[in-house]
Amino acid sequence: MKCPFCNENLPEGSMFCSNCGTRVDNASGSGGAKGGGVNEVPLYQIPEPAPAMMPERKKGGKGKWIAIGTVSAVAVAGCVAAAVFALTAKTPKEKVIAAFEQVYDSQKELPGEEIFGFSQFAEMAKSQDVEEGISLSLSDTSFWGTQSFVGSGFSLDAKFSPSRKQSSADVGFSYQGMKMLDAQVYYGDDRLMAAVPQLSSYAFLLDMSGDFGSKLKNSPMAGAVLQSQGVDGDALADLVNETLDRAYDTENPAFDLNALLNRYREGCKAKDKFKEALTVEKEKGNKKSFPVDGKEKKCQGYSVVISKDAMIDFLEESSDFFLKDEILRDDFLNQLELMARFSQVMGESFTSDSPKKLLDDVYQDVEDRADELIRILDKTLDDVEMVVYLDRKGNLVAFSGETNLGADDDLIGVEFEVSLKGGSHPLQNLEAMAGLSNDGERITVNVEREGTFDKEALTDRISVEMNVVGDRVGGEYVMSYGRADGDLKMQLDIMAERLQVASISLEAVVDELEKGKSIHMDLEELRIEDSLNDQHMAFEGEFCLKPLEGEIEEPEGQVFDVLEADLSDWGAVGEEIEEKAEASFGDLF
């Protein structure tokens, strides 16, 4: 007989399957005569046998098939995973391109950007209501003839509100610690005002509101001058108002570099075609270890060839994009048209051609020069052969390469090496070298960078040395900043034959900082040194940039309308300025 559950062959009359242990005499339906025998006993009335009565299961039975099934399932899953990985894994070219792009993208969030928010400050300064100030005064000097100016300097406080179309600037000059002049300028509500309290009690007003053209033509002084020069007052007024409107238009600024680069990235296919033209192969057996973050990191080498044709195509398409960018072209044309109109209004000839014809000629000249440069490069460039090393995670660790410049027998060998040594961003610690060689002569440039950033303290050192056929020149930049105390130190040294020639250093304290929004810095010392002649000059001061607080106010003083004033009014102003200048500065001259 056979077990109806696992199909195992069993002796006749068996009550249990010796393989799977299931009771079979009742389940089989043929264990006894009809109407009698144990088969007639309902299952729920048959007692379970004692453990000792249970027959031992044979090895390799049901458990064997379960094990085989499990292994098979794992194997199938592994094959599927391998197939999926094979379909989705990056090719060598994709790995290399992604590694370089990751390095480029990482520069958008450098430690300095994370601490200070430089890009936010730049955007705020050109498009939001802000105020900023800077002051510098000479604190020490050893240069001959400059000692009498210790304590002298200048200050600038500026406010800018594009939302209100207002701005002001206050420029102060001091001599030996005494404030000498304070020039104040204001624009708002179509009113331009200026004042120098030390020289005049008046606040001079150029009122451009209302019918500005009529005010110009009817002015006792300005009207006569414009008429004698053949200047149309109405046309001049329109140009002035148009220029001011453009200056305060932050939504559509002219020559917006960021917008231009975004259009290039989105609209120009040069970069994509350049990637397609790359030849990248994994170099079997080419594995090296490089020091990264203090540890040796194993890397895989990839052979990369950048063809000359790919580089030429990239230059041609990029040049073509910028020359045909309509927005950039319109910005240039608008600027030329504005200059031409000013010239015409002032009775002068800007050019014999129209602004559009002039712009077309300029663009054609630029295009011809670009084409000539590309033709020269096409004759002198050669393919660039590189070896790129990536770690197991696909990060760029090192690359080196070589090519030739020139033609025929006059070739210049070019070689370069870059090793990225880790840090908080890929370019924080690195070594790089570029060299040119020809007829036994060699020029090399070596760059080293070391830095640290632990979210609280930032250090950076960059050294550059150029060896020109045995003569060495270069420089070193060192910087450190601590968030806890705000201490900022920067120094730039100019070197020749590894001796310091000159240096510029700054010691400051950032005592107020809200990332990308406001900053105040005490400039404890800005020092300039002539190391060869052992001379120096030092300054002290402060700097601030923050959102605009309060109103932008007009200069104080009796309002003097320059368009309404006549000759006698101007004569009185001149006499006052002469008297005050003699009283204030007579002893200095």
Describe the structure.
The protein is built from 13 helices and 20 strands. It has helices spanning 62-88, 92-106, 111-116, 118-127, 212-218, 222-228, 233-247, 257-267, 270-277, 308-324, 326-345, 355-380, 567-585; strands spanning 130-141, 153-161, 166-175, 178-188, 191-195, 202-207, 279-292, 295-306, 384-390, 396-407, 410-420, 430-438, 441-453, 457-468, 471-482, 487-496, 499-514, 518-530, 535-547, 558-561. The relative contact order is 0.11. Mean pLDDT is 85; it is low at 27-60 and 62-88. Helix 9 packs antiparallel against helix 10 and helix 11 crosses helix 12. A hairpin with a 2-residue loop joins strand 4 (178-188) and strand 5 (191-195). The chain has 589 residues and is α+β, with helices and mostly antiparallel strands. 32% of the residues lie in helices and 36% in strands. It has a 20-stranded mixed sheet.
Quick take:
The chain contains 13 helices and 20 strands.
Question: Keyphrases for this structure?
Answer:
single chain, 589 residues, alpha+beta, 20-stranded mixed beta sheet, 13 helices, 32% helix, elongated
